[in-house]
Amino acid sequence: MNNTILQINELKTYFFTRLGVVRAVDGVSFGLRKGECLCLVGESGCGKTATALSILRLIDSPPGRILGGEINYHGEDLLRSPGARLRQIRGNRIAMIFQDPQSSLNPVFTVGDQITEPIRLHLKLGHRPAHDRALGLMEQVGIPQAKERMGYYPHQFSGGMKQRVMIAAALSCDPEILIADEPTTALDTTIKAQILDIFRDLKQDKNMSILFITHDLGTVAGIADRIIVMYGGRIAEAGSVLDIFDQPKHPYTWGLLKCLPSISERREKLSPIPGIIPSLIDPPEGCIFYPRCQQRMPVCQQKRPEEFVIAGEHVAACYLYA
Amino acid sequence: MERKLLEVENLKKYYPVMAGLLARHVADVKAVDGVSFFIAEGETLGLVGESGCGKSSLGRALLRLEEPTSGRVFYRGTDITSLHKKQLKELRREAQMIFQDPQSSLDPRMTIGDAIGEALLIHGVGSEKDRPERVAELLQRVGLEPGHATRYPHELSGGQKQRTGIARALAVSPKLIVADEPVSALDVSVQAQILNLILDLQHEFSLAYLLIAHDLAVIGQVSNRIAVMYLGQIVELAGRDDLFHRPLHPYTQALLSAVFLPDPHQQQKRIPLPGEVPSPIDPPAGCRFHTRCPRVMKVCRQETPGLKQIDNNHLVACHLYE
């Protein structure tokens, strides 16, 4: 099992709406290892955020519901654990950073309060020790004048600084796993680079496992050990970072890599993927990428492809490799 | 020698800061602080910079969507900064804008056919009778179906909304389009489609663009020349290849080094930029970048460098090159 600490099996999370049942996560399985950075990559609506939220059972219910599967964490299935147990784990063993720091920080509490809250709750430290620990964390993530700024409110920070506050709060109890949902998307290029350096250090110094969700392949190339490409609520392809970038196999992955504008080479025209992202309500039988695939075959429409092995851990859900 | 379509001379846009009980004017946000450049007919000038550099304010002030504080803008040799309302309307036929957020720039209560038709109506393009045909033509030109004319914005995807914005801008057959972050809200595959569309339209209609964006790869894909902005001023302006291969200004160098290439083999050495961008209310004396510049010298703290031509259309504002 090579030190897999979190194992997700056949996760299914659906949203029951007026317009129909949205199959946001439709049978997803993968493992997260100790000390690795696993990137979940895909465009809007591919199910990556829903997958991450399902791990900590943060799905809005209704209309969402985790219908099936297992999430094994140190011998425990999180999907079957009682609420109290989840609360012990959230913020403590498994922490999450959300996409928009603007809406994830409470505007009426100081930043210091928000970082100390999980410390007092989970580590049961007293007022002073918790304060000192929070201060240390703020310094660790590179917030200048940390002592003074502990008493500041979120609105007094820039976007990049708010994101660092979120990271500090997430790290406060030394979690084993950090789930980061698009943590750098809203940030400027140079700030993004600074934040990603923090993540890299965390992996290195604390051997922290990071589940990093993003649509930006550039970021992925800079930080991932392994990559899972998601499309239509399912896994299209998975492998090491070199597997995916050097030898992409799924037509969707090809499409994603080919349509990126690049600084290093000027292309006459970009090659976009024709068509649009599919609706996840009542998807048809077969491969969900079928309508947009340039390599489609009759079998692709009949039955959903399983993940075929390319080499080692490199897999692709595509009949080209059956 | 290409004709200058648009020429900007020392443009400034300040936003007053009111404070105190009596709401007195205590300071100014110097969003755009002395910017000069030109755009030739049929060319694309990319304007890149991070949040708060003033690029969006510049775009709006150029077309007088906001009134410039001082400085002049010439369109085809005519000073447009002092035009009256009626004359300004004529300018708008020639110079149009595409906005960043397709959601908020379309009236949610108008069908997109009406929204595009409105542009034709206001500028007296064609008769009422041939309006529907012209709208259908425009929709097809941007890759939408004529049938989409009866849809409301909320029924469209992000990419479709953006195409609507482009169709509306094209409706009056402009010669210049200011595009403010036209693709940043879109997924990469849609982004590629829209960028290709922008390029195609340029060839077909000999359009000039001012393309404002923070993503260097996007800018690089469509621009002929690129201007880099920092804290309200242009720090470097050069041809696309020149800027990418021979960046002169330390800020440009840091910005380029911070870009994550979607290639795990090409992970470059990042030039770290300490701290954050200073406030535009109280920008640093001398060269505004001196507080973060890895190559700062004594003169940088005292004198503001002007934008000077180094060679062959490569301009830079930096004491290192004087």
Helix count from the secondary structure assignment of chain B: 10
Helix fraction of chain A, binned, reads 25-40%
| Uncertain runs of chain A | none
In CATH terms, what is the architecture of the largest domain in chain A? 3-Layer(aba) Sandwich
Taking the sheet with the most strands of chain B, its summary is:
8 strands, mixed
- Share in β-strands of chain A: 15-25%
Biggest sheet character of chain A: 8 strands, mixed
Kindly state the number of beta strands of chain B: 12
CATH superfamily label of the largest domain in chain A: P-loop containing nucleotide triphosphate hydrolases
Q: Please tell me the overall pLDDT of chain A.
A: 91
Helical content of chain B stands at 25-40%
SS class of chain B: alpha/beta
Write out the strand line-up for the largest beta sheet of chain A, numbering strands in chain order. Answer: 6-7-8-3-9-10-12-11
Feature tags:
heterodimer, A: 322 residues, alpha/beta, Rossmann fold, 8-stranded mixed beta sheet, 12 helices, 33% helix, B: 4-stranded antiparallel beta sheet, 10 helices, 30% helix
Characterization of the model:
The complex is a heterodimer of chains A (322) and B (322). Chain A contains twelve helices and twelve strands. Chain A is α/β, with parallel strands linked by helices and 322 residues long. Chain A has two domains: 4-93 and 175-321, Rossmann fold (3-Layer(aba) Sandwich), CATH 3.40.50.300; 104-174, no CATH class. In chain A, strand 1 (4-17) and strand 2 (20-33) form a beta hairpin. In chain A, helix 4 (111-122) packs parallel to helix 7 (159-171). In chain A, 48% of the residues are buried. With 322 residues, chain B is an alpha/beta fold. Chain B has a domain at 243-322. In chain B, the strands form two sheets. Chain B has an eight-stranded mixed sheet with strand order 6-7-8-3-9-10-12-11, with helices on both faces. In chain B, strand 4 and strand 5 (78-79) form a beta hairpin. The longest helix of chain B is centred in the middle third of the chain and has 18 residues, at 188-205. The interface between A and B is large, with 46 and 43 residues.
